[in-house]
Amino acid sequence: MPPPPIRRVAFDALSLRELHDLLALRSRVFVVEQASPYPDIDGRDPRAMHLIAADASGAVVGCARCLDPDEDGPDAPVSFGRLAVDPSQRSAGLGRALVAESLTVLAERWPERDVVIGAQQHLERFYGGFGFVRITESYDDFGIPHIDMRLRR
After folding, report:
1. Residue 73 pLDDT > 80
2. Nearest 5°: CA angle at 103, between 39 and 105?
3. Any alpha helices (H) in 27-123, and if so which ranges?
4. For the chain, how far is it from start to end, CA to CA, in angstroms?
5. What sign results for the dihedral spanned by CA atoms 40, 87, 148, 102?
6. What is the pTM of this model?
7. What pLDDT shows up at residue 92?
8. CB 67 within 8 A of CB 79
9. Which helix (H) or strand (E) holds 32?
10. CB of 115 within 8 A of CB of 140?
């Protein structure tokens, strides 16, 4: 079965239900499933382009957010993150579809900017399949080993 379609939604266009479901999915995956009590509400959601995948019943089963550069200048990288997939969709290719759509969004908005992500270390090979390469040593991010990875444009 193919993954559900992915919609792009600016923060201010999210319905209250979508925002609730998006935050609930991120909490279920990152805080509960991965036992990582991290500060999800970091102030970056309002300026992000959100990607949302919902199943046939309308339940949010996948999400990601695409972020503007954190700094000024033409060489400042762009990023995506908070990519979460409900366990029911993990074998359907939704994670790959969310990464691909994130890269498309970033390429449309900032075509010549590198993409830098903070990736869970065990996903290095997964992101490597999109052309990302590790640029840092492993570091702890709220109990989960992470690495930074870069995709050159």
Report:
1. no
2. 90
3. 94-109
4. 32
5. negative
6. 0.94
7. 87
8. yes
9. none
10. no
Within its chain, how far is the Cα of 13 from the centroid? 18
Q: For residue 61, what is the enclosing H or E element?
A: strand 60-67
Nearest alpha carbon to residue 100 among 15, 23, 108: 108
Extract the tokens encoding 36.
């990582």
Q: What is the DSSP letter of 14?
A: -
Query: Between the CA of residue 23 and those of 14, 40, 82, what are the distances in Å?
Result: 12, 8, 10
Pair of tokens at residue 146: 């992470």
pLDDT digits (tens, 9 = 90+) for 107-133: 999 999 999 999 999 999 999 999 999
Residue type (1 letter), 139: Y
Question: Are 113 and 76 spatial neighbours (Cβ–Cβ below 8 Å)?
Answer: yes
The amino acid present at 66, given as its one-letter code, is C
What's the rounded Cα separation, in Å, for the pair 105 and 115? Answer: 11
